[in-house]
User: Which sequence fits this backbone?
């Protein structure tokens, strides 16, 4: 029986990754002394924004971080809403008695800004955010299992990244790979995860969950 579902945020609940890349480049490049490439930024993914900034800016990183937060809030209008269908899925899971948590690599500040913009600040039973010095999703998952007295097969995690699959394997739980973001390489996800657990749309994911969770309705045909 599935008792808890954990969600990633960027690229899973909303198409925020392109906006994050633009904000980081604009806010942090002046402090780095050169225009940051997408590759340089992506290499810091998995750390929270404090760790990302520190990885690039050695002196004056505090001001760079402040500039990032200011611009992040300002530019979030570029991604004002979550993906269609994801809020309804979260609500329906809770109506079925399933606890819904958020586990993200984002830091607490940027996570709060995004959840408030999406109207999801009160949607989750627990919110786990990233660390500045390490990838910590596996330990956050382990903490949830312990806190809620869950067996590993009672928990599912939904995330879009290759690192999400690695984190779930480390934690001993199942990853349902979200492959609906424009930034996702679905073929790579199928290489590292069971191809049957890689979903190209929220409707596909919902139908999979409906087969595993009693009372969860399948997606309506459009």
Assistant:
């Amino acid at each position: 029986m599935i008792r808890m579902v954990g969600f990633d945020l960027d690229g899973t609940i909303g198409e925020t990754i392109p906006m994050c890349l633009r904000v980081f480049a604009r806010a942090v490049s002046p402090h780095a002394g050169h225009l940051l490439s997408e590759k340089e930024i992506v290499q810091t993914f998995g750390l929270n924004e404090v760790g990302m900034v520190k990885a690039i800016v050695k002196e004056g990183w505090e001001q760079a971080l402040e500039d990032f937060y200011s611009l992040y809030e300002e530019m979030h209008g570029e991604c004002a809403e979550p993906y269609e269908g994801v809020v309804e899925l979260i609500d329906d899971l809770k109506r079925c008695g399933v606890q819904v948590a958020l586990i993200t690599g984002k830091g607490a500040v940027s996570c709060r800004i995004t959840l408030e913009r999406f109207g999801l600040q009160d949607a989750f039973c627990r919110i786990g955010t990233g660390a500045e010095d390490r990838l910590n999703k596996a330990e956050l998952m382990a903490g949830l299992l312990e806190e809620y007295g869950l067996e590993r097969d009672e928990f599912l995690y939904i995330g879009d990244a290759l690192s999400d699959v690695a984190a779930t394997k480390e934690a001993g739980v199942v990853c349902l790979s979200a492959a609906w973001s424009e930034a996702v390489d679905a073929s790579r996800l199928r290489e590292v995860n069971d191809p049957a657990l890689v979903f190209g749309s929220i409707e596909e994911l919902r139908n999979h969950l409906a087969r595993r969770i009693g009372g969860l309705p399948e997606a309506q045909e459009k």
